[in-house]
Amino acid sequence: MEVTLSRRRGVDVTVTAPPSKSLTHRALVTAALAEGESRILGPLRSGDTARTREGLAALGVGTTDDGDDVLVRGCGGVLPLEGPVTVDAGDSGTSLRFLAGLATLSPWPVTLTGSLRMQERPVGPLGDAIAALGGSVAYEKKPGCPPVTVTGPVRGGAAAMRGDVSSQFISALLIAAPCYAEGLDLSLTTPPVSASYLDLTAAVMGAFGVPVERGGEDRFIVRPGLYRGRPYSVEGDWSSASYFFAIAAVCGGRVAVRNLDLSSLQGDRLFLDALVRMGCRVRAAENTVILESDGDLDGITIDMAASPDTVQTLAAVAAFARGPTTIAGISHLRYKESDRVAAVVRVLRGLGSRVAVEEDALTITPTPLWGGVVDPANDHRTAMSAAVIGLGAGNVKILHAECVDKSFPGFWDSLQGAGLL
Questions:
Q1: In 3-state terms, the chain is what percent helix, strand and coil (to 5)?
Q2: Residue 263 per-residue DSSP state
Q3: Which pLDDT does position 339 carry in this prediction?
Q4: 309, 339, 405, 413: which is the annotated catalytic residue?
Q5: Partners of 356 in the β-ladder
Q6: Which pairing describes strands 184-188 and 219-222: parallel, antiparallel, or unpaired?
Q7: Cis ω for the linkage preceding 125 (within 30 of 0)
Q8: What average pLDDT score do residues 44-58 get?
């Protein structure tokens, strides 16, 4: 599928944010460990969340569609496996890591694998922690990367882990921890990246009846216990909403995004703060956020470590500002679905912008953009951020545009419905 975008000015758009991918993953996996049945209300249905459901089925936990909801029949902390299994997570890093956490409960070997790109993405810090807690970890090809075979059950107890590669490693252990005989006392040897996602994990665990005790930013304690099945409603996704806010910022005009929780713990909610600093105006009414822009944007310097999924969106906006923008806190983006630091450089330079790269920062210096062709390399966020550039500059063709199905299957339909395609 190819999509070509033309330059737009003065947009006036109202859209609905899809359900949160991050919270859907967490709710599915936590409900899988609960005692009894849970109803996940309005979850995201996408390529990634489908991988999580398929992985849960492989581990013996069934999920069923019931209208807009998903029913999860929890295993009460005991995976009903009768032999070794293999879980293919495709391109979904969240699925692989969270399911690796569940695999620590299995007395049978669980092999977790994925796409060729997934087999390049590190899981070593998670594997080391699993081994320290009493599990067995074996890498089938490249040390520290999938395919990885995990065998439990782990006893739990104290462990240490790096926090600067992925917060998902931490979340994977936290979610499984109540099912460990000794619980979990996890210390981080480096500050956590994407710390807001740990808040999301703790909030979902708490909703299902298990609290997470904190000792500052670098210590997490989970006591042995049992999750309780319950209804859980998935809020809207601030990461997906960012593309529409960005479109109004660069094109000028107004966008209203419905289905957003203004008190959300999602770190990408802070993306709006960046746009306000650049000159946009934001107001909210109930569950709707409205952004207005006259298209005159100022460059800023900002740390986006807490909002990693909107770094590419902000880089797209920065290409239309009146001065340079420096985005710091980005080094861990090299380990995502693609190397997203390299992706920003490749896309923006390919369309005419100037980009300078440091170890943990990008500086975008705006120049006139001439359009062109973007291959997102199967990365949904590269494709959607390129759409922002296309609507701001015009004459941008995006190849393999169906890759947005990973997190936002309705993205192109939303643009078409808004008259932007």
A1: 35, 25, 40
A2: T
A3: 86
A4: 309
A5: 363
A6: antiparallel
A7: no
A8: 97
Q: Is the pLDDT of residue 58 over 80?
A: yes
Both tokens of 380, joined, read: 């949904």
Q: Other C-beta atoms within 10 Å of 269: how many?
A: 22
One-character DSSP codes across 191-229 = PPSSHHHHHHHHHHHHHTT---EESTTSEEEE-S---B-
| 3-class DSSP state of 71 | strand
Average pLDDT of the residues in 71-86: 97
From the list 154, 193, 25, 160, the residue with the least C-alpha distance to 99 is 25
Q: Tell me the CA distances in angstroms from 317 to 37, 250, 378, 409, one per residue in order.
A: 44, 6, 21, 23
CA distance 420 to 261: 26
> Could you tell me the pLDDT band of residue 165, with boundaries at 50, 70 and 90?
confident
296 in catalytic set: no
- The two structure tokens encoding residue 3: 């999509």
Using CA atoms, how far apart are residues 87 and 345, in angstroms rounded to an integer? Answer: 34
* The two three-digit tokens of residue 218, written as one number: 């670098």
User: CA dist 206 to 87, 110, 167, 169, Å?
Assistant: 27, 27, 18, 19
- Cross-strand partners of 302: 327
**Cα dist from 161 to 191, 203, 218, whole Å:** 10, 21, 10
Distance, in Å, from the CA atom of 43 to the CA atom of 25, rounded to the nearest integer, reads 9
Buried b (16+ CB within 10 A) or exposed e, 101-131: bbbbbbeebbbbbbbebbeebbbbbbbbbbe
DSSP code per residue over 2-37: -EEE----SEEEEEEPPBPHHHHHHHHHHHHHSBSE
CA distance 170 to 149: 18
Burial class for 26, CB neighbours closer than 10 Å (0-12, 13-18, 19+): buried
Amino acid letter, residue 326: T
Q: 236-284 pLDDT, tens per residue?
A: 999 999 999 999 999 999 999 999 999 999 999 999 999 999 999 999 9
Longest dimension (CA), the chain: 62
Q: 175, 56 in Cβ contact below 8 A?
A: no
Look up residue 330 and give its two tokens.
């980005």
Residue 139's alpha-carbon distances to 136, 176, 307, 362, 384, in angstroms, are: 10, 21, 31, 34, 34
pLDDT tens by residue, 391-411: 999 999 999 999 999 999 999
